[in-house]
Write a structure and sequence with these properties.
Radius of gyration: 42 Å
CATH class of the domain at 172-356: Mainly Beta
CATH topology of the domain at 172-356: Jelly Rolls
Structural class: mainly beta
Number of strands: 25
Shape: elongated
Helix content: under 10%
CATH superfamily of the domain at 172-356: Galactose-binding domain-like
CATH architecture of the domain at 172-356: Sandwich
Largest sheet: 7 strands, antiparallel
């Protein structure tokens, strides 16, 4: 509204342009306002309804007092201010309630929905900007891994994949075309024109992250030499893979001096837990593994396997086409079969858990460090003949229930197989076959073997329910 005088003159204007006319007195006045520099967009403003009108709003200031608003905002136009509030979400976050503010410590990117910015995170690839840019599987550099559901515990269906459990202790001497076992749950074999030397045992090489391996040591083969390492998974544990996608990986090492072809075979049992007849599901094809130049191994991976109906049991076998060799070494470790199309890092179970899983298939009365047939009474079953009828009986309860009723082998404390020890008379005697067997218990008896009343007897045992 223009500023004018309330009095209006009735005298008509003169024609003299050099004097003030009555109409000039009543015309709108224009003035100059000083002292507002910096608060308004211009030092001169038109006054209207006693309010200073700003022609154009300016940007927010960079900072203002979040408690009482003493350092006022330049405009009341609402907008996002990308500054941390001193108390996010409180009434004192910012002075004006008509402004939207972001608390940057808990933000997703604007418009990104579920995206999380990776900018500035240590160890992340520089080309990635949001989490949705990552492919499924393991992410990050080195040991920096974003866990996925496929990395949850108990995902590895292979038991003792890193050869950490070795209840039998004694190395298996290789015999042509004959599978044998040393460390639990894995059988090995060698073939060729002749197999003249070599053992299957374990060692402490670290092929990737676990310092333990299945070790074919000092192998000598002639002709078309081949080495095999085999593992079987029972039907109850194979059911989860029925008509699913699975991935396999292990780490291998060989020191023949040249590249060697490896192949991974995945087979299924034709009847539940009966591997007398098997059908191939698929194989990896030939994978060339270079000769070793250091202790570290080479990954042997077979991802995205279509398993089909494998619910009767799974057999995994690694074939090594080494040819004619003399005193060469081959190592295997960190075997893992899991659901999914990507092989994830090896699942390292607590040792006690791994041992118990192995004891479902094999258990012994001996101390862990003592091989079956060792000359020792440590850990033996000990008792007395209970009558003059020369009868000795005992009931053994195993630590872990077996997958099926096991085969029991007796050992005298002298190491003699198929015997128990008459400790009182210092003689080995032949027991009756184990009876009253179940997955968890069996009875030992000795009758008509000239064991008189109160004679002390002792023995060891092994229980085997391997596939």
């Amino acid at each position: 509204m223009a500023i004018t005088h309330p009095f209006v003159s009735a005298i008509p204007d003169s024609t003299d342009a050099t004097i003030v006319k009555p109409s000039n007195w009543n015309a709108a006045h224009v003035g100059t306002v000083t002292g507002l520099a910096g608060l308004l967009t211009d030092d001169q403003h038109v006054l209207d309804a006693e309010v200073l009108a700003v022609a154009a709003a300016v940007a927010h200031k960079d900072t203002h007092d979040p408690e009482d608003g003493a350092d006022k905002l330049d405009t009341a136009a609402p907008g996002a201010i990308n500054q941390n509030a001193s108390a996010a979400g409180s009434s004192h976050s910012l002075a004006r309630a008509d402004h939207n503010h972001q608390h940057t410590a808990a933000l997703h990117q604007n418009g990104g929905g579920a995206e999380i910015s990776l900018t500035g995170l240590d160890g992340e690839p520089s080309t990635l900007t949001t989490h949705k840019d990552l492919a499924t599987g393991v992410h990050g550099a080195g040991a920096n891994i974003i866990a996925t559901t496929s990395q949850l515990p108990n995902r590895n269906a292979i038991i003792n994949g890193a050869a950490r459990v070795n209840q039998r202790v004694t190395a298996h001497t290789l015999v042509k075309d004959t599978y044998g076992i040393c460390a639990d749950r894995f059988y090995g074999m060698a073939t060729g024109t002749a197999v003249s030397a070599g053992t299957l045992t374990t060692n402490t090489f670290n092929l990737n992250s676990v310092p333990s391996t299945f070790f074919f040591s000092a192998v000598t083969l002639t002709g078309t030499g081949v080495i095999y390492l085999r593992h079987r998974i029972e039907a109850k544990d194979s059911a989860q893979f029925k008509n699913q996608t699975a991935s396999f990986r292990c780490y291998v090492r060989q020191d023949t001096g040249g590249a060697i072809n490896y192949t991974v075979y995945i087979r299924k049992a034709n009847a539940a837990d009966n591997f007398a007849a098997v059908t191939e599901i698929s194989n990896s094809g030939v994978v060339s593994i270079p000769t070793a130049v250091a202790e570290a191994g080479t990954a042997l991976s077979y991802p995205a396997i279509s398993m089909g109906d494998c619910s009767n049991g799974i057999e995994i076998e690694i074939k090594v086409e080494c040819g004619a060799i003399t005193t060469q070494n081959f190592m295997f470790s960190e075997h893992q079969l899991e659901l999914g199309s990507v092989a994830t890092p090896f699942e390292y179970r607590p040792y006690g858990t791994e041992l118990a899983l192995c004891q479902r298939y094999y258990e012994k009365s001996y101390l862990y460090a003592d091989a079956p047939a060792a000359v020792t009474d440590n850990g033996c079953v000990y008792g007395f003949a209970v009558s003059t009828y020369e009868l000795f009986q005992s009931i053994v309860t195993m630590q872990v229930a077996k997958r099926a009723v096991p085969t029991i082998v007796y050992y005298s404390t002298t190491g003699a197989s198929g015997k128990i020890r008459n400790i009182t008379d210092g003689a080995d005697v032949t027991p009756s076959a184990a009876s009253m067997l179940s997955e968890k218990t069996f009875r030992t008896s000795s009758n008509n073997v000239f064991v008189a009343d109160s004679k002390a007897l002792g023995y060891h045992w092994t229980a085997t329910a391997e596939l």
